[in-house]
Amino acid sequence: MQKIPTVQLQTPADNGDGKIHVRLTEGLYQNIRRLISWPLLGLFFGLVWVQHNGQPWLLFSFAQHKIIVFGHAYSWFDLTLLAGLMVAGAFLLCIMAVAWGRVWCGFACPQSIWTWLFIRIEQLTEGRASQRARREGQPLTAKQNLMRIAKHTLWLLLALATAITFTGYFVPVRDIFASATTLQLSPLLLGWLLIMSALTYLNAGLVREKICLHACPYSRIQGVMFDQHTRTVSYDASRGEPRASKRKNTELNNNKHQGDCVDCSLCVQVCPVGIDIRQGLQAACIDCGACIDACDKVMATLQRSKGLIRFASLAQLENKPSPQARTRLLGYAAALLLATSAVAYGFTHTTSLQVAISRDRNALTTHLGQHHICNNYRIKVESFNPDETRITVTVTGTANYQLFGPAVIDLNENSGEWLAYRVCDEAAQPGVSEIVFGFEGQAVRVEKETTFLGGGF
């Protein structure tokens, strides 16, 4: 049996120490990334501070058992709607993958956005990539130690700000700062902030591209979604090969057998995952377009057409026609439409009042005389509408039942609390009968059915 030959991919950006020194570049795709990432960063760091009627705009409150989305409160029972949003987002991600590859990873993924921020801090404190690469493995001077201390300090501060902001979507951020300034942070909250800060520091500062290649499942499943019409960052080998030295520009212009690639390796130097796109499509590529910006600059300097590296499909590189409609795209689009429609329907049919009824297991029934029997219940009422503060409780059934317990529940004091109730039947009808608890507020009424155990039990 003939073995499939293996090829060892070389990574010029890796100087043998396992660390990739990313060279920053400017260009069209860098500007697009800014237009996408900076608003996302602004929303992430700013939205946590926005309030509406004293409530955060977005909060997943464990203490209140509420999900507050843009001022509207939802119950934990509505978590399925968030799951539906995630399903819809997954289908949208599939559409993007089938059409343009891993553009989400390159332009909007938090891992990529934070990695670029950490790289910019690294360049600000330690200099350009070429300078950092030359210093690797050399004895550190006092100045270099100060630069590294400044870099890691800024990294840690950004990681801490990220951890506090992220936690602020589960615990009101103002409460976090109030507790921190008075040194009253709970051990659980403090531990979580330290863990979250450490993970951010490691992921964006030290691990970086290894997360994209080894931890992110998207790099593994993208091969299932890709086809010959998927547009990804691609190197046009038919135009670029055979490569020649950029120093022989005059000879290149006169030699038609030489390709446009001058083997400058800038496409590798600017790659955040350290791959050589000229070696073909690779799982590590996040389609960020940095290599396109770098190559286009070189082509412009050499007065040649841009696009030696560009977003292109395999069919386009081979000059094959692309279909007007693709079945896979249409299928994902239909699934996305169904998912978003279901979520939209769910958000318009949420309940603002949640009621739970359970029997008191310690005393299911109580006999008061020969013909007088009572059942004991525990009732919990939660309101997710700030206007509903008082709920009236009633009980109806086939007999003349009497209700003993708070006739009106004050939700300002007893929301989410278990309250004891007793329902009595003077006639003590034998067997099991159905009763209905009614809970009525200003603009809402909820009915809950349960059973009443009569005589003979």
Secondary structure elements and their pairing?
Elements: H1 28-47, E1 51-52, E2 55-56, E3 58-61, E4 66-69, E5 72-75, H2 79-100, H3 103-107, H4 110-126, H5 129-135, H6 142-167, H7 173-181, H8 187-207, H9 209-215, H10 218-225, E6 232-235, H11 237-240, H12 249-254, H13 266-269, H14 290-301, E7 309-312, H15 314-317, H16 327-347, E8 353-359, E9 365-367, E10 373-383, E11 390-397, E12 401-404, E13 408-410, H17 411-414, E14 418-425, E15 432-440, E16 445-453
Antiparallel strand pairs: 1-2, 3-4, 4-5, 6-7, 8-10, 9-10, 10-14, 11-13, 11-15, 12-14, 15-16
Helix pairs in contact: 2-16, 4-6, 4-8, 6-8
What level of helicity do the residues show?
40-55%
* Tally of domains: 3
**Count of beta strands:** 16
Shape, per Cα inertia axes:
elongated
Major sheet characteristics: 5 strands, antiparallel
Radius of gyration: 32 Å
Q: How large is the share of residues in beta strands?
A: 15-25%
Low-confidence stretches: 1-16
Description of the structure:
The chain folds into 3 domains: 28-219, no CATH class; 225-317, no CATH class; 353-453, Immunoglobulin-like, CATH 2.60.40.10. Helices cover 43% and strands 19% of the residues. The chain is built from 17 helices and 16 strands. The protein has helices at 28-47, 79-100, 103-107, 110-126, 129-135, 142-167, 173-181, 187-207, 209-215, 218-225, 237-240, 249-254, 266-269, 290-301, 314-317, 327-347, 411-414; strands at 51-52, 55-56, 58-61, 66-69, 72-75, 232-235, 309-312, 353-359, 365-367, 373-383, 390-397, 401-404, 408-410, 418-425, 432-440, 445-453. Strands 8, 9, 10, 12 and 14 form a 5-stranded antiparallel β-sheet that branches. A 4-stranded antiparallel β-sheet has the order 13-11-15-16. The protein has a 3-stranded antiparallel β-sheet with strand order 3-4-5, with no helix packed on it. Strand 9 (365-367) and strand 10 (373-383) form a beta hairpin. Helix 2 (79-100) packs antiparallel against helix 16, helix 4 crosses helix 8 and helix 6 (142-167) crosses helix 8.
